[in-house]
Design a protein that fits this description.
Strand content: under 5%
Number of domains: 1
Oligomer: single chain
CATH architecture: Up-down Bundle
Largest sheet: none
CATH class: Mainly Alpha
Shape: globular
Number of helices: 6
Low-confidence stretches: none
Mean pLDDT: 90
Distance between the termini: 35 Å
Number of strands: 0
Order of helices and strands: HHHHHH
CATH topology: Four Helix Bundle (Hemerythrin (Met), subunit A)
Structural class: mainly alpha
Helix content: over 70%
């Protein structure tokens, strides 16, 4: 249970309260600290899965915690950037879309797990996660970025792109899941 991939996943969960705390002590240094911690957490998301597969250390705990750690981190930052006015009101909608999709797909995965159906992550969903993480990093830094770097604009465009991809991947996952809910699973070859 306490292998390196699982420790990386757990570290992502432990980082969340620290990132949250930085929002309450707003300064350029705290914004960059939050961005650095968020970036480290995002990097651990890649390496925990990679190392688990490479070292054949895929575990039930890791498969359980990894998606939870991702969703907790993203949800916390989405709520914080809205609560602390790091995005304009026009970006509340994509933040809400991302949050609702994460909750819906988590529920779908739980339902399908009871049926012993795995829901593999698609390449498009991985791209969504990458765009989302980059956008959130820019939004965390926001006005603390150098003058020549329009971090807020890049972050807001990125969150809209992530929300669009979120809708596409969410629809794809739901389309597959509805077949099982209706009792008509796809035929296996």
């Amino acid at each position: 249970m306490l292998n390196l991939p699982n420790l990386l996943t757990m570290s992502r969960i432990v980082i969340i309260p620290v990132v949250v705390a930085t929002f309450f002590f707003d300064s350029h240094a705290m914004r960059w600290t939050a961005c650095a911690l968020f970036t480290i957490a995002g990097i651990t998301d890649f390496f925990d899965g990679y190392l688990a597969r490479r070292a054949n250390q895929v575990s039930h705990l890791g498969r359980f915690l990894d998606p939870i750690a991702d969703k907790l981190l993203v949800a916390a930052v989405l709520l914080l950037i809205v609560a602390f006015d790091r995005v304009g009101p026009w970006s509340y909608l994509p933040a809400l879309v991302i949050l609702l999709r994460e909750i819906t797909i988590s529920g779908l995965r739980e339902f399908l797990a009871e049926l012993r159906v795995s829901v593999p992550v698609t390449k498009l969903a991985k791209a969504k996660t990458t765009v989302q993480m980059v956008a959130l990093g820019f939004l965390i830094v926001g006005s603390a970025a150098p003058v020549w770097l329009p971090a807020e604009l890049i972050g807001e465009i990125g969150i809209w792109i992530a929300a669009l991809i979120t809708l596409i991947t969410g629809y794809d996952y739901l389309k597959s899941g509805v077949r099982y809910m209706a009792g008509n699973p796809p035929a296996t070859p």
